[in-house]
Amino acid sequence: MQKVTLSELDTGERIISERVASVRSVSLGFWIDVGSRDERADRAGVSHFIEHLLFKGSRRFDAQEIAETFDAMGAELNAATSRENTVVYARVPDHHVETALEVMTDMVFAPSFGEVDQEREVVLEEIAMYEDTPQELVHDLFSEAVFGDHQLGRPVIGTAEVISTVSRRALAGYHRTAYTPGNVVLAAAGNLEHDRLVALLQRSERRAGAPARAGTRVRRPLGQLPGPGLRFQRKETEQYHLCLGATGISRSDRRRFASSLLDSILGGSASSRLFQEIREKRGMAYAVYSFGAQYTDTGILGVYVGTREENLAACVEICVEQIAEIAAGRLRKGELERAKESLKGRIVLSLESTSNRMSRLGKSLVTDTELLTLERIIAEIEAVEADELAELAAALLPPERLAAAGVGPDETRFRAAVGRASTTLVEQAAA
After folding, report:
1. pLDDT tens digits, one per residue of 76-91
2. Which domains does the chain have, with CATH numbers?
3. Which of 51, 119, 144, 277 is catalytic?
4. Is 51 a catalytic residue?
């Protein structure tokens, strides 16, 4: 049975926790409902930049004190920014929860925005690192191919142009707007008592001078998207790095369980079709997989392959062929059942981690997604039928919906290979 408890402070901040009495750790996470999707073009990357700056000192603790405090506890402290939210998280021994929460609260609500110029250089180096990592860069290009000029098509990390010029004042102003209590969720899982957690947070917020209650931000809904696009960046690489796919489904879509199973069968495991057909049987790639992400009102679904020039067209053909096989309902014997067992097993194993339990709670609450019990999740997975899987593949990944992105030495050869999937896409891109 889940032991999940939810509270809301007078400020509007929500607290959700799950007691796991069998461990000696607690995972804490401040989830903020802001990400790269919420930025104007001239502020692209500020959410990620602010995430960095939270570690550079707060009203009561400087950067070294923050690092030393968590190191002295043997704890983990980190943060991440995505397209729709930011999270600052830690895993600490249970007797250090009070100290960890006090420091994290000050970081989140009262950053000093010191060392902006020094950290600016760090983020610029991070952007340069992504540019030098084609298997990462191609995913940002693919988002742009799918979503065009919409914020979902931009890199979460931002652009060098914005990061080089954004001021400390602009960063502090953006923080005041986004990091209000009504946009923040504290999630926790481990050996803890919920009422004590609430009391500790209230005290920590008073010390941090957290803002009073403010209304929650309203995210602009997705408008009309352009048709599928094609993006390519030339680099002198040994391999071509290719992403092929389309818009997916939102996180509240009832088909999300079928989508997870589609991902597993197509390219999400060592026994998946693409891994077996491209890597194991033909040796044409080292890395090949399918991937997906779900947002408030849309999603993204695709496949990635890194391969040498002589194999590129054949890899595209195999990807399209396997998608078509699934869309036609031609599942192999035991394939769906194996995917279901794999997905259920991964979920069960993930719940042995307090960090994963905390993330599940926090992400559900900050995105206003129903928090399902493990029993309900397993039942939903079991209920997916083969024809639902086929219908989903046919609806999401027909040739006319496919977008493509690539990194490699020759755009002409890349376009020729993509033409094996969609001649229309290549013709429109050339027009």
Report:
1. 999 999 999 999 999 9
2. 4-208 (3.30.830.10), 230-430 (3.30.830.10)
3. 51
4. yes
